[in-house]
Design brief:
Elements (H helix, E strand, L loop, with lengths): L2 H23 L24 H9 L4 H34 L2 H12 L3 H34 L7 H32 L4 H28 L2 E3 L6 H9 L7 E4 L10 E4 L6 E5 H6 L2 H16 L2 H35 L10 H38 L2 H11 L9 H7 L5 H14 L19
Parallel strand pairs: 2-4
Antiparallel strand pairs: 1-2, 3-4
Helix pairs in contact: 1-5, 2-15, 3-5, 3-12, 4-5, 5-6, 6-7, 7-11, 8-10, 10-12, 10-13, 11-12, 12-15, 13-15
Length: about 450
């Protein structure tokens, strides 16, 4: 049996194993409560204590649900490592078996036009790496999500989405590859400086088109104008955000996760809330989440994030300049790579960027986590719904560990932990008791409850 045949057989075996694992465990649910009562310790009183209120909210989470979300999130730590190692092995195989050089040669035989050669190479590279990474993708994106009760798609629709993603990556990746290799060939001495500029511009371009052209490929996006959520739109307008910039997405066809986000750039910037949140969340919870997303919007986190990304991109290209030169001097001839402008160098570029990204994970997470905390505090001040915010943190705990250690949170969390978010809400409540209704509230009814 040839090496390629063995690889195909192994991938088939792994996929069958992943699907069997899903079939065995697809009935597992998250069990987080939809309706969360305000605990006695969290009721407004002259002796209100933020720590006791936080502990009382955490006690509302069933033990089985906490164990499951902890296991899911902690498993993600290992996936960061396995994704990195698996990707590194694939890149080294493409280089050492000279598959990358052979793909370049094939692209050159098809056409003499350099941009078309780059597109031809990129197409081969993307298809081959997608096939090689398919078993891990099935496990991470399908069987594992079903195992933990976070997915709603059957395998067929999931595969359709994977096909769409492949086509999107094919088009955008080809455009980026043509631009970057064109820069390298045009300015071989200062390519890394101009490459960083092109990469930054491309990142802004993608941010601009994602909500308008990319997201609708996978989901139906509609303007949020349901009368039931009028307070949400009023909250947006009160904070200087046009109501037409608030949208809903039908994420429930793929996942059970409740979420919202700010996306876009300039005129395409918008707040999007998924239908799981609008269906399961209480009015207070939805308004608190809206306040959080408004924080990202009003505090210009998209623009600040792009500035941070620019710094990372410049650092990455400076690292690439050194890493590629050092590697080619030692193994370039063995890999049959002719130089920096040779498309066959792409696996080496991906490997170097993966190493840098793996090392910088805590740094990138810390920056994002700081922005999320700022949005949390803005949201609390805008919505004045600390109990709704606590409920949102618990629902997000369906797929995030609620109470990590400080080092664990520093390395792996791109959002504040659930415990810290609830404590922030209860601390805000403790300092603003006069704004909270003194009348005890029995529960927070979801908007979709009957």
């Amino acid at each position: 049996m040839t090496l390629r045949a063995k690889a195909c057989a192994l991938m088939l075996l792994l996929c069958v194993g992943s699907l069997f694992s899903w079939a065995q465990s697809s009935s597992m649910k998250t069990e987080m409560p939809d309706v969360i009562k305000v605990p006695d310790a969290a009721q407004p009183s002259a002796h209100f204590d933020a720590v006791a209120a936080t502990d009382a909210y955490l006690a509302e989470i069933p033990a089985t649900a906490r164990e499951r979300s902890d296991a899911y999130f902690e498993g993600g730590y290992w996936l960061i490592l396995w994704d990195f190692l698996y990707g590194a092995v694939v890149c080294l195989l493409l280089l050492n078996l000279r598959w990358s050089a052979k793909m370049r040669d094939l692209a050159e035989r098809v056409t003499r036009f350099k941009p078309l050669q780059t597109i031809g190479y990129w197409t081969q590279y993307l298809v081959l790496t997608t096939i090689l990474g398919f078993p891990l993708a099935v496990y991470e994106g399908f069987s594992r999500e079903h195992k933990y009760g976070l997915a709603t798609q059957t395998f067929g629709p999931w595969m359709v989405d994977q096909g769409k993603a492949l086509l999107v990556n094919l088009v955008l990746g080809a455009l980026l590859a043509v631009l970057l290799f064109g820069v390298v060939r045009k300015v071989p001495r200062s390519w890394w400086i101009w490459g960083a500029a092109v990469m930054t511009a491309f990142t802004i371009f993608v941010a601009l088109i994602v909500p308008v052209f990319i997201v609708p490929v996978f989901n139906k996006v509609t303007k949020l104008d349901d009368p039931k959520v009028t307070p949400i739109l009023a909250l947006a307008r009160a904070n200087g955000i046009p109501a037409h910039d608030v949208y809903e997405i039908d994420a429930s066809k793929q996942t059970t996760r409740m979420s919202a986000n700010v996306s876009g750039f300039g005129k395409t910037m918008r707040i999007t809330m998924n239908d799981n949140l609008l269906r399961r969340g209480s009015p207070e919870e939805i308004q608190s989440v809206m306040g959080h997303e408004m924080g990202h919007y009003v505090l210009n986190h998209v623009y600040l994030g792009l500035m941070f990304i620019f710094i990372v991109i410049v650092a990455a290209f400076a690292f690439l300049k050194w890493a590629l030169g050092w590697s080619l001097a030692r193994w370039g001839e063995k890999w049959q790579i002719r130089g920096i402008g040779d498309t066959a160098i792409l696996p080496l570029v991906v490997l170097a960027v993966s190493i840098l990204g793996f090392v910088l994970t805590p740094v990138i997470n810390t920056f994002t986590r700081a922005q999320e905390h700022e949005a949390d505090m803005y949201g609390l001040n805008a919505s004045r719904m600390p109990d709704g915010f606590a409920q949102a943190a618990i629902h997000l705990g369906e797929y995030r560990k609620m109470s990590p250690g400080p080092i664990e949170e520093f390395i792996f969390y791109d959002h504040p932990s659930g415990r810290n978010r609830i404590y922030d809400a209860m601390r805000w409540k403790a300092e603003n008791l006069a704004l909270i209704q003194a009348k005890p509230r029995t529960d927070l009814e979801p908007t979709g409850a009957k």
